[in-house]
Structures are given as structure tokens and as C-alpha cells.
Amino acid sequence: MKMTRKTWMKFTSATLLALATAGAASAQTAELRVGLIPSEDAQAMIHASQQVMDQLAQKTGMKVRPFVATDYNGVIEALRSGKLDIAYLGPFSYVLASQVADAEAFAVAVTKKTGTSSYHSLLITRKDSGLDSVAKLKGHTFAFVDPSSTSGHLFPKAGLLKDGFDPEKHFSRVIFSGSHDASIMAVANGKVDGAAVADRILDSAFAKGLVKKEDIQMVWRSPDIPESPMVWRKKLDAATKRKVSAAMSEIKDLPWGDQGVLNGFAPTNDQAYDVIRQTAKTLNLDLGKMK
How do 86-88 and 229-233 pair as beta strands? Predict the structure, then answer.
């Protein structure tokens, strides 16, 4: 059949409309892969972050797929290999990811509870243990969280060394529990004598009834630690970065992981984490060899 100009115009218009509709549908169903460090167990992390993930999906028009690795380096490796687009990392795991996975911090949570973008590391023991000081922990067992955990390893180790306490020599045994919750429960159940944990996660454990506040004591507290950032791969396309950044600036009044209810996400940058690099330097850590 001979195609007239009128028929051609109708065909072209219909084709362009179909392509535009398909493009819009594709944009609506594009996937955003989000990594979450396992500060709690995987299901707890996903559950505690779900409302933020839902809002992120709604505001970006993208399908959001959360991922929790078995350890901190699992998230870093997934960023490095391009299997994740953005991630929630601890401060030290971010510094490591910026070195080996070309990651860049862009936002940080500010919560209603603290109103700040910092937190602390604590060393804890059972109150009935008699271990009410760092010095008394000499010769006892201890749990760190993960080699790449800021409040669960880097800051407490630096603090102990500054006080003349060498974890590698003065503890009878050291383990890495894998999560802050696991370390808290290890102390509560007498599996280890002491542990290093984030203050906000300990507060959350009290609130959830995992442990009783009257059973746990703090024997050391760190200086301020810059809050855990949201990061993206630097090579993530600019349009997606704009969508994600704009969406996260509008998300508030929702629970966010172990941090509590959000006031919102504030912009941050790589320089905010130089204090972490300086702390790593005092421990003679070669970031390039830690992954």
C-alpha cells in the first residue's frame, strides 16, 4: 500500500509518541541500587530504612533496591565494581571507599534526637563484672565490630592506644562480631568482657529491650565522630545524582536506620571526613591495602 504524506505524518507521530512513552516508562522503572552497611543485622537494617527507601523511590521515580552485605567491605566492593549506585557507609568505611572505590560523600543525616551530624564510640562492660575502667580490662576478652567500623574499631582503638592500652597486647582475646548489636549482646550475655559500640546503637538496643540499661556501663567515650554519610559513585550519571540529591533534601520525619527520626539530610563533602583520615594515620593504617 502506498503511504501518503498524511499517513506518514500519522505514523511518525504515533512512533514518536510510543518512543516517548517508552522512554518515560523506562525512566520511571530505572533502578537505583542502594548499599547499607550491616551496623545491625541485614533484615533490621532494611526494615529500619524502608520508609526512607520508599520515599526515595517515590521522589526519584526510580525502583529502589536496598542491599546489605555480610560485612562493611562487601558494600565497598559492590560500589567499586559498579553493582551499587549509592550507599550508606560509616565514616571510616567511607574514607576507605573514597580511596579504593571512587566514592564521594554527598549527604548526612541530622536526627531529631541529637540535632547534630556527629556521634560517639563507647567502650562498654557489664555492671556486675567489676570492670569499671579501661585499665581493668587488661587481660580480658573484647569485641570490636568490623575492621572498617569507625565507632566499632578505628576510634576506640586509637583512644586505647592514646591511653597507653595496646589492644593487641593487653586484651586476652579480641574478636570482630560483625555488627554493633552483636557486640552489645556479646557483652550482655557474658560472651566477651567488653566491647566498642556506637552510642546511638546502644541507645536503640535499650529502647528495643534487647538489653537492660541497668546491666550495662560505659567505661570510655570518644570525641565527636562525623556522622555516617550517604555516598555515590563519582561516575554515576549527573541526572541521577541530581534526582537523588533533590529527593534526599526533601526526606524528613521518618526513621532512618539506627539514627532515629530524621530532621532531614544535610549536604556534606569529602573534607568533612579528614579527621577520620588523620585518625587512621595515627594508627599507621594504609588505606590502599585495607580492602
Answer: antiparallel
Distances (CA, A) of 221 to 43, 114, 156, 198, 282: 29, 16, 8, 10, 18
CB contact at 8 A, 143 and 187 = yes
CA 218 distance to own-chain centroid: 23
Helices (H) and strands (E) in the chain, counts: 10, 13
For 100-145, the pLDDT digits (tens) are 999 999 999 888 776 667 889 999 999 999 999 999 999 999 999 9
Outline where DSSP puts E strands in the chain. Answer: 31-36, 63-68, 86-88, 103-111, 118-119, 121-126, 141-144, 173-176, 194-198, 216-221, 225-226, 229-233, 262-267
What DSSP line would sit under 76-126, residue for residue?
HHHHHTTS-SEEE--HHHHHHHHHHS-EEEEEEEEETTT-SSEE-EEEEEE
What digits encode the pLDDT tens for the residues 196-236? 999 989 998 999 899 999 999 999 999 999 988 999 999 99
Burial of 206 (0-12, 13-18, 19+ CB in 10 A): middle
Distance (Å, whole) CA 39 – CA 41: 7
Mention every residue, 6+ apart, whose C-beta is less than 8 A from residue 33: 65, 67, 83, 84, 85, 86
**Which domains does the chain possess?**
32-116+227-283 (3.40.190.10), 118-225 (3.40.190.10)
Q: How far apart are CA 130 and CA 124, in angstroms?
A: 12
Diameter over CA atoms, the chain: 95
